[in-house]
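Help needed: design a sequence for this.
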């Protein structure tokens, strides 16, 4: 029985996780989903070649928006469960995916593109302050 694309993806992510156990396997799937979201959000999904490329800063914006939409006020807790504590951790995940040949990079791409990026806790707290207040007032 031939392996499916999903099986091959899972195999590569498991290999990555054997080398770097900091992040759950779901963190890698989340980043790939957030990349798809970001490409669509910035209109890159309709482009080809270099024009499709999403840089680290753009991806962080997409991650923030995608997580806020998917997880709402629980986004910070979800990130902690994934093993993600800072924006720099997303850079580590992305470069692990690059090393596994699941993503590509330009020569100018760097882990530093993710450092000092977004403080997700503050961002999510601010975005969902009203929701959080309603929850705590009950």
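Sure. Designed sequence:
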């Amino acid at each position: 029985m031939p392996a499916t694309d999903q099986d091959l993806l899972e195999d590569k992510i498991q290999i990555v996780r054997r080398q770097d156990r900091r992040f759950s396997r779901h963190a890698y799937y989340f980043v790939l989903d957030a990349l798809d979201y970001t490409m669509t959000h910035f209109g890159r999904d309709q482009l080809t070649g270099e024009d499709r490329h999403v840089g680290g800063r753009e991806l962080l914006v997409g991650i923030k928006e995608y997580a806020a939409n998917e997880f709402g006020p629980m986004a910070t807790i979800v990130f902690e469960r994934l093993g993600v504590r800072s924006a720099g951790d997303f850079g580590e995940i992305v470069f692990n995916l690059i090393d596994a040949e699941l993503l590509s990079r330009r020569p100018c791409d760097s882990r530093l593109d993710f450092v000092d990026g977004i403080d997700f806790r503050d961002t999510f707290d601010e975005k969902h302050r009203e929701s959080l207040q309603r929850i705590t007032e009950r």
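The chain has seven helices and no strands.
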